[in-house]
Amino acid sequence: MTRKVADCRRFPSETNCTLTITGEEDEVLEAATQHAVSVHKHQEGPELRERIREFLEDEKAKA
């Protein structure tokens, strides 16, 4: 299974967040959702989870 990456640096924020979360898709989605709610004050719900899922990227293979 391809690991996924959620990288806050891709999105401007007031806190200039640099957090990157890597793991299996369900793990990253859960952690990124919790982070978005607790740190960035987004509203928990299916719309947030779908937006996060859309910006997940495949982890680049290490050489």
- The beta-strand count equals 3
Instruction: Report the end-to-end length measured between terminal Cα atoms.
Output: 18 Å
Please indicate the percent range of residues in DSSP E strands (runs of 2 or more): 15-25%
- Over the alpha carbons, how many angstroms does the gyration radius reach? 12 Å
- Helicity range: 25-40%
- The run of helices and strands is EEHHE
Class based on secondary structure composition and strand pairing: alpha+beta
Q: Taking all residues together, what is the mean pLDDT?
A: 92
Largest sheet composition: 3 strands, antiparallel
Q: List the strand order in the largest sheet.
A: 2-1-3
Query: Spans with pLDDT under 50 lasting ≥5 residues?
Result: none
- Judging from the principal axes of the Cα atoms, what is the shape? globular
Number of domains: 1
Q: How many H/I helices?
A: 2
InterPro entries: DUF1059 (IPR009409)
Protein name: DUF1059 domain-containing protein
Structural commentary:
This protein has helices at 25-38, 46-55; strands at residues 4-7, 20-23, 57-58. It is an alpha+beta fold. The protein has one domain (4-58). Strands 2-1-3 form a three-stranded antiparallel β-sheet, with helices on one face. 11% of the residues are buried. The mean pLDDT is 92. It holds the Pfam family DUF1059.
